[in-house]
User: Fold this.
Amino acid sequence: MTASEVSVPLALARRVRRGSRVRRAIEGAQAEEPDLAALAETCILSLLDADGRPWRERAAAAAALALAPDAPEQRSVAVDALHQALDRELWQTQRPLAGLAYKVVIPLCLALGVAAVVYLSSQGLFLTDGWLDAAFGGAVVAGIVAFVLCLVASGLLMPALTGIRAFQQNRVRAAAAWALGRLGVADAAGSLADAALYGTPGVARASSVALLEVLPHLSPDAYDPLDPETPRLLCRLLGRKGPEADLLLLEALGKVGGGGALADVERMARAARTEPVRAAAERILHLLRERRELERHSGRLLRPARAPRSDAETLVRPAPPGASGDEQLLVRPVIGAGQDDPRTE
Assistant:
């Protein structure tokens, strides 16, 4: 394990509190013979515990999964955990009741507390009889004012808390994208392209770099005409990241792109500013045109234009070559002469 491979996870781990299992596991990766299986297990558990672990620890765990062992089973679990951390839809729906808690539950609890004080005051437990009326009126007014102020404060505080949490989540997402790029996970091309297009600036930068590391690992076997989403996302990135990125994107579209990518590649061939990009686009166009024709003809079934006519006197010979038998045992066609073939109606 080289120092450069551990540098990023180690830098993130040093921001985690001392004594954390994730920090100890990452620091142990600098040993001569590190236990990568134990490191991956610790980081996977921390990354999947979105509610129980601090975001700094989860970001360090995500980056450390780039050191996942080569064992297929554990590597697959690590990649699934990184995909889950990168999924922006999961972040948006992870805590749907948080706004309700801040905006309704807290003011309601405060109002109930004020009501309890009013009730006890009316029973004379805190004040004498001469002060009951004034205390009751003042407590009601104070409860109403407190409820309104709490509602206003929660409305102002909730966006700030949401922004802070989004910042923390995006740091974890950026670390997960970096790890997927270092692992060279070809299946992550679609998720990384989506994050590069629609993520926050930090997530988009990390995902763009990771995507360029992942694209060379794509194979022609990855082409799936039933999954046009990944080629569509790659097409949207054309012309945005520079000539070197355009070359990698075009090569990837030559492997996984279909007829739907044809218009974008034609546009890139016309608008390319460098000759290598234009030549690559022209070369990929031929592949995409062939795939478009295959996609057009793949849904067609070959049927005969007309069923062959049979003569009623024609006899069918037995299957074994050279076999002979009684003519009465020979099979006659079902459709006789002069009868209409229902298949041609």
Summary: Residues 3-92 form one domain. The chain has three domains: 3-92, 98-171, 218-297.
